[in-house]
UniProtKB/TrEMBL annotation:
GO molecular function, one term: ornithine cyclodeaminase activity
Enzyme class: lyase
Organism placement in taxonomy: Bacteria, Pseudomonadati, Pseudomonadota, Gammaproteobacteria, Oceanospirillales
Listed name of the protein: Ornithine cyclodeaminase
UniProt keyword Lyase, yes or no: yes
Domain of life of the source: Bacteria
Record carries keyword Cell division: no
Coiled coil regions, renumbered to chain: none
Keywords from the UniProt entry: Lyase
GO CC terms of this entry: cytoplasm
Enzyme Commission number(s) from the entry: 4.3.1.12
Length: 315
């Protein structure tokens, strides 16, 4: 059994095309019914304002599977510690023996989450998409733009965040990478000319409404990953011509389908893995509006962990 620290993992794995292919293949396996993915195990540690999530999946025929433990302790910054941490344990799918522990401190989760946004855009946005609006200015907001550039020729980024100073700082970093970046005071202004909208916030109340959606836009919502978070008003979902979730069950409990809790959705719910595996064309015209809700799946964790270990050991 090998133990790998974050520095070694970062040197081996990045937001690149090889990692994107690995994660996309995991989604496709899930869509074909070739993956076993149990529900998320989630535990609150209320006295410390913390939570721990455990995600896993087995892709049939794969040599390895992973179990990810992801703690989030949100008072940690007061102690000079990061809010998020975690590790991935990688097992042999033949013997169950532990092959490696990837002490990535949440790095691989960041990578696979960014890549999932790119994969959603690859299958749902217009191919000529050039302009993205990003709501949020944290690490994942920045990484979503980086990953999007793998699949679309992004040239302009419109930013909105509750803290304008954070949005301005992100805009400067994006300009240093050759992108045109604009900071906006209001969400509607940020989204007005967007080909793609990415919501990457910890919001507990909706930020994006149907009235904010330009014709033909694709929306990737990835901030709502627990029962108390929401970024999209229900009107966004009903306005969309196609709604896709990485996992319908998870979207209903943790994601944007909570807006319809206890009642039937007035639209069809697609799953991203099935869209990929079936080659489904949900964008029927340039005017089609698509929405993808990403809550984070165990199959992504197994896919990125297997990819990382292959890169680390050279196999």
């Amino acid at each position: 059994m090998q133990l790998y620290q974050r520095d070694a993992i970062e040197a081996a794995v990045g937001i690149d095309r090889e990692a994107l292919v690995a994660v996309e293949a995991g989604f496709a396996a899930l869509g074909r019914g070739e993956a076993v993915q149990p529900p998320i195990l989630s535990m609150a540690i209320e006295e410390a304002n913390g939570e721990v999530d455990v995600k896993t999946a087995h892709i049939r025929g794969a040599a390895r599977f992973a179990i990810k433990v992801s703690p989030g302790f949100f008072d940690n910054p007061r102690l000079g510690l990061p809010s998020l941490n975690g590790l991935m344990m990688v097992f042999s799918a033949r013997t169950g023996q532990v092959e490696a522990v990837l002490f990535d401190e949440g790095y691989l989760t960041m990578v696979r989450t960014a890549l999932a946004g790119a994969i959603a855009a690859r299958h749902l946005s217009r191919e000529n998409s050039r302009r993205v609006a990003v709501l949020g200015a944290g690490e994942q907001a920045e990484r979503q733009v980086e990953a999007l550039r793998l699949v679309r020729d992004i040239r302009v980024v419109d930013l909105w965040a509750r803290r304008r100073s954070a949005a301005e700082a992100l805009a400067e970093r994006l300009r240093a990478r050759g992108l045109e970046a604009h900071v906006h005071e209001e969400v509607p202004a940020a989204c007005a000319a967007a080909d793609i909208i990415v919501t990457a916030t910890p919001s507990r109340t909706p930020l994006l409404f149907a009235r904010d959606l330009p014709e033909g836009v694709h929306v990737t919502a990835m901030g709502a990953d627990s029962p108390d978070k929401r970024e999209l008003d229900a009107s966004v979902l009903t306005r969309a011509d196609a709604f896709v979730a990485d996992s319908r069950a998870q979207s209903e409990t943790n994601g944007e389908l909570k807006a319809f809790a206890g009642r039937e959705t007035p639209f069809k719910v697609h799953e991203l893995g099935r869209v990929i595996a079936g080659g489904d064309m949900l964008r029927l015209s340039a005017a089609t509006i698509t929405v993808c809700d990403l809550t984070g799946t165990g199959v992504q964790d197994t896919a990125i962990a297997d990819h990382a270990l292959s890169r680390l050991v050279g196999t």
